[in-house]
């Protein structure tokens, strides 16, 4: 089967294991990754300097993608390199049209995408008879919803031939909310994020201090992540296990006052995006990973942690319990 996989940098952590498995299963997979100037550091991508042209190019033209040559066949892995931020810019309109023509010329059996299309992607609906939409978050997280997001989702739910959900916990609620026939729903599960093994050889001189149990939170900072509750809970943990430490690391705006916790000797807060090598180091150092989310779907954090043989404690929201 010929598959075109259209995605963005924010989904690559879950996309790459799937694409690898599709290749191993004998499918012919062409992957196009949207790479706008504002998303150079996201999940697996940590690009220091963007190529200065809006064009479609091999992903391995960027050195940062070359490590994945050890993981799967990257000869059909492309990036849609966009140097202008606004989708209204002529260069962005033009490259999206070029991408559509390229996808159409490949004549795929199926077009798969985890990205909710917006009005700049309207041409993609001309291939809606082949379009399969993977919905990572059936419902927007707290603090991340808006009317534009809702409108784009509503159009996409009507236009796509099939919709893939990644957990069974939320299927009924999803079909009821969007008035979708259950026959249009396909179920899949994200697998272990085993590309983490690519970064382990880079830690040959790293040693974990086993005398200090470390609790780790990592990932994008957002209000639904519940970090403030974890920090408060750590005060109780410290009384019971004085040697225990907590590390909170991730990019994004802190949505609460972290000042009361910054001077605690057993708490380390690193508020910046961490690349894969650094994440591998943090996971190697940790004893356990905690996801104190107030709402959720499923989480790549769980599957990344499992790839490093780290146990996870999470609140039982969304499909977190199902995955753990």
Q: What's the shape? A: globular
| Widest sheet: strand ordering | 5-6-2-1-7-8-9-10
Output the structural class: alpha/beta
- The succession of helices and strands, N to C, reads EHEEEEEHEEHEHEEHEHEHEHEH
Secondary structure: number of strands: 15
Which bin fits the share of residues in helices?
25-40%
Estimate what percentage of residues fall within beta strands.
Answer: 15-25%
Please, how many helices?
9
Distance between the termini: 32 Å
Rg over CA atoms: 20 Å
Mean pLDDT: 93
Low-confidence stretches: none
Largest sheet: 8 strands, mixed
What's this, in brief?
The protein is an alpha/beta fold. The protein has helices at residues 12-24, 90-106, 147-159, 171-178, 227-240, 259-262, 276-285, 300-307, 320-323; strands spanning 2-8, 28-36, 41-42, 45-46, 55-58, 77-82, 110-113, 131-135, 162-165, 185-187, 214-218, 245-249, 267-270, 288-291, 312-314.
Key words describing this protein structure:
324 residues; alpha/beta; eight-stranded mixed sheet; five-stranded parallel sheet; 9 helices
Structure description:
It is built from nine helices and 15 strands. By secondary structure, the protein is α/β, with parallel strands linked by helices. An eight-stranded mixed β-sheet has the order 5-6-2-1-7-8-9-10, sandwiched between helices. The two termini are 32 Å apart. 30% of the residues are buried. The mean pLDDT is 93.
């Amino acid at each position: 089967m010929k598959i075109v996989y259209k995605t963005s940098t924010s989904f690559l952590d879950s996309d790459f294991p799937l694409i690898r498995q599709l290749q191993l299963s004998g499918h012919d997979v062409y992957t196009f990754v949207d790479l706008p100037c504002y998303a150079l550091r996201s999940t697996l991508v940590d690009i220091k300097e963007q190529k200065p042209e809006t064009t479609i190019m091999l992903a391995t033209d960027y050195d940062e993608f070359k490590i994945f040559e050890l993981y799967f066949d990257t000869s059909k892995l492309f990036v849609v390199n966009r140097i202008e931020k606004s989708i209204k810019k002529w260069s962005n309109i033009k490259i999206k049209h070029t991408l559509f023509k390229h996808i159409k010329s490949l004549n795929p059996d199926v077009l798969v995408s985890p990205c909710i299309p917006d009005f700049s992607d309207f041409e993609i609906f001309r291939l809606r008879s082949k379009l399969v939409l993977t919905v990572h978050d059936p419902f927007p997280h707290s603090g991340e919803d808006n009317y534009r997001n809702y409108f784009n989702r509503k159009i996409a739910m009507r236009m796509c031939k099939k919709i893939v959900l990644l957990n069974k916990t939320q299927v009924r609620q999803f079909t009821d909310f969007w008035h979708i026939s259950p026959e249009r729903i396909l179920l899949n599960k994200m697998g272990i994020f085993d590309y983490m093994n690519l970064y382990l050889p880079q830690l040959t001189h790293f040693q974990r201090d086993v005398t200090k149990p470390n609790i780790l939170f990592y990932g994008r900072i957002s209000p639904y992540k519940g970090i403030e509750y974890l920090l408060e809970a750590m005060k109780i943990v410290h009384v019971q296990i004085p040697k225990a430490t907590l590390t909170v690391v991730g990019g994004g705006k802190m949505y609460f006052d972290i000042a009361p916790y910054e001077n605690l000797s057993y708490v380390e807060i690193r508020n910046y995006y961490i690349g894969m090598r650094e994440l591998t180091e943090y996971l190697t150092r940790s004893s356990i990973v905690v996801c104190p989310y107030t709402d959720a779907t499923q989480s790549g954090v769980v599957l990344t942690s499992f790839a490093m043989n780290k146990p996870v404690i999470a609140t039982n929201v969304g499909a977190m319990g199902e995955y753990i």
